[in-house]
Hints:
Elements: E1 2-7, H1 10-13, E2 21-26, H2 31-40, E3 45-48, H3 52-60, E4 64-69, E5 72-73, H4 88-91, E6 95-99, H5 103-110, E7 115-119, H6 124-132, E8 137-142, H7 151-166, E9 170-171, H8 175-187, H9 191-194, H10 199-206, H11 213-216, E10 226-229, E11 232-235
Parallel strand pairs: 1-8, 1-9, 2-7, 2-8, 3-6, 4-6
Antiparallel strand pairs: 4-5, 10-11
Helix pairs in contact: 7-8
Bound molecules: D-malate.
Amino acid sequence: MNTIExxxxxxxxxxxxxxxxxxxxxxxxxxxxxxxxxxxxxxxEIIPVRSIDExxxxxxxxxxxxxxxxxxxxxxxxxxNSPFYFTPDKVSGKTVVYSTTNGTNAxxxxxxxxxxIIASFLNFSSIFEFLKGGQSxxxxxxxxxxxxxxxxxxxxxxxLAYSLINSGNFTTICDSTNAxxxxxxxxxxxxxxxxxxxxxxxxLKKLGLDDVIDYCFTMDQTxxxxxxxxxxxxxxx
Length: 237
Ligand code: MLT
């Protein structure tokens, strides 16, 4: 029987032991939804970087750079962070350097584990099937917002934890996990209405970038599972 735990924000991640676990990084609005979309559309490799300076250096070396802070595209970047930008003609076969407000930090944090995979509602069933049949304990890392809890990542964590426990292969004594499951049960009957509470949707709305909300909450748009290998994200399967 495997265990499942949830770190509700990056600030909490240090309270968990990621060793010999599969860390599942989630940032629904919008980083992991964007990453899953890029792999759906054929990107070869995504290099996550923490700092703006690192992203600038890659840009100077001729890399395609996708970078935002507080939702807005950085001036030197080729693209901001809407999943709708990354059509096959833009990303197929490409290497993309990626830096966001929270998501890429969470990925680098998660790299303390042996295995880091990227999840969103867009690849939910693939992630579930991959974890369900495995022999590893799972730690879901919610990217959150600047170290704080956020509703959308926790709703996802609850959905995944609920499914894995119901599969019969997982158990938990983690209060964060049970809280996330309860949040999923509260939100899922009428997700559209519940999402009105989500702070990030209002931040994106102020920037005119909230056209992605429904897409980011759409299940199973890709079977891709991005995995962190040698500092880059590649397609596991
Ligand atoms: C994040 O990294 O928290 C998000 O991706 C930020 C955004 O895209 O607005």
